[in-house]
Amino acid sequence: MVYQLVYVSAAQDGSVNTTIEDILEKSRENNERTQITGMLMAHDGNFFQVLEGDEAAVAACYERIQQDERHKDPIILMTKHVDTRSFPQWSMGYASPEDLSDEHRDIIISLTGLIDNLEAQFESTSPEISVLAGSFVRSFRDFGLA
What we know:
Helices cover 47% and strands 27% of the residues. By secondary structure, it is an alpha+beta fold.
């Protein structure tokens, strides 16, 4: 079984353009070593990332992300075990919403559907989570992805 973790965070300085290359370079190096695959999307000052691999390795990776000053307020949206990786060739793929293939777009659409279903729960536990998740989902809808 493969462990998947999906999270969102905000860019510390509000702009993903200044940090994305550094994040990708370091992520790819670390992820190849620990056999983590995944996909990172950045849009409108926010990051959306899927990490997948061994549960302990993914948890350690997410812990590093939480300590990374380039990420502000990372929030886990989903964790689950799956039979196969969604991004097997990507040590850390990067795409803007308009760059996604149909297959990966379908994955994102299903994840945004999950977020929609959880919004009521987010609102009851944390208004900040609701705003962040809702904002990111709307950014996908702006590109016709959801």
